[in-house]
Design goal:
Helix 1 runs antiparallel to helix 2 and helix 7 packs across helix 9. This protein is an alpha/beta fold. A seven-stranded mixed sheet has the order 3-2-1-4-5-7-6, sandwiched between helices. It is globular.
């Protein structure tokens, strides 16, 4: 077992005993060697965003991808950092204010609805898909938040390491593709440069709105 996985397990246990302390949650989201294995800059670049685009970062956590996405869309773009965790909502708001990020808006979502205030060009989610109770229904409903030609990008842990497999924190790529097809999407591209995750980008079938 690598040291980063041992550290992640320790953080998870400490968070349980300490009542979900925000600092431990942030470390769990952003600590360890995540910057090495997840290749965040390559992930964001592969999304081929344009200046002025609007993006929803579902399950934003501590903002690991939020701020990188905001850099990519520029000051005239917009990133909605969506989460359901009160600690993470508060932390994100503090970070956005501290960095004076006017192109980021923190949104308190619901477990069944991201509650976006407007339509976006891209819905992005990392390590969140497996937490959604009914992904097919969730993303079927989420189509109302996509602009024509909008996309959904899903990064989720795969079963290539024992940790996510043991705790059920992963979704096979084939399952995601099947559930998204039922929700009315078609696979646009499948990327394989993140070893521990599947990475798939979907578009609405027919390209229109719901």
């Amino acid at each position: 077992m690598s040291s980063s996985w041992r550290a992640a397990i320790a953080v998870a246990l400490l968070s349980t005993f300490l009542g979900g302390c925000t600092s431990f949650k942030v470390w769990a989201y952003q600590g360890g060697d995540r910057g090495e294995w997840q290749k965040p800059l390559a992930v964001v670049a592969s999304l081929q965003l344009h200046k002025g685009d609007s993006v929803a970062d579902l399950g934003a956590g501590g903002g690991y991808f939020t701020f990188r996405l905001a850099d990519e869309v520029g000051p005239i773009g917009k990133v909605y950092a969506v989460d359901v965790d009160s600690d993470m909502i508060a932390y994100l708001k503090e970070q956005v204010a501290a960095q004076d990020r006017k192109n980021i808006e923190v949104v308190r979502g619901r477990y069944d609805d991201p509650m976006l205030p407007e339509k976006v060009d891209l819905i992005f989610t990392s390590n969140t898909y497996h937490h959604i109770d009914d992904p097919t229904e969730y993303f079927r409903d989420a189509r109302k938040y996509l602009r024509p030609g909008g996309r959904v990008a899903i990064l989720d842990l795969n079963d290539k390491t024992w940790f996510p497999y043991l705790f059920g924190h992963y979704t096979p790529a084939a399952v995601i593709e099947k559930e998204m097809a039922k929700a009315g999407y078609m696979l646009e591209v499948k990327l394989d440069f993140v070893d521990r995750q599947s990475f798939q980008v979907f578009t609405v079938r027919g390209g229109g709105e719901r």
